[in-house]
Amino acid sequence: MYKLVCIAGMPGAGKSVVSDYFVTRGFQFLRFGQVVLDIIKENNLPPTENNERKIREDLRKSRGMSAIAILNYPKFKTLLKKGNVVGDGLYSWSEYKFLKEKFDKQLIVISVYAPPSLRYERLSKRVIPKSDKDLRHRPFTKEEAKARDYAEIENLEKGGPIAMADYTLVNTKSLAYLMREVRQIYAKILRLRNHEMQKQKLYS
């Protein structure tokens, strides 16, 4: 049974770094918020925090609080037929419950934490590389980042998946330290999947 590893955390915590590690280990990649940026591109809007927030909240008003997960569900389902998947940016409690209901033991959630001051510093120093067509690494001012934090916590139930994560990474030290922690979690997930496969063979 292939695994869907979803990465949760506030902006600037280090979700993309963790997701990218799983990609290097052969996981297929899907970014939750890409559906929002795709709508922004389709409507020729600038990728500002105000525009993103409006689209995120409009989607949830029209489709419910699990909207982003529902929109990504067919993609996750297709990818899981071929192999393990990492989902970058699990947002709301409703999305967590939706995915848990659909994928059950296939779903593993990793929370990445860093305090606001450190996250805001990271976000303000971001530079968008030319290769970043999906705008994963766009910068935010401190004011934009704080506004996004409040909106995600108050309007998008973002604390739920972070609190209920299977694993939590505290990203306040060096990149090398974070990578050591990520490798340990990856090894645990691999052992879990191998154990499940052995059980399947035993009872098949």
Automatic annotation (TrEMBL):
Q: Which Pfam families match?
A: AAA_18
Fetch the InterPro entries from UniProt: P-loop_NTPase
Q: Which SUPFAM superfamilies match?
A: P-loop containing nucleoside triphosphate hydrolases
Q: Which domain of life is it from?
A: Bacteria
Kindly provide the name given to this protein in its UniProt entry.
Dephospho-CoA kinase
Q: What is the lineage of its organism?
A: Bacteria, Candidatus Woeseibacteriota
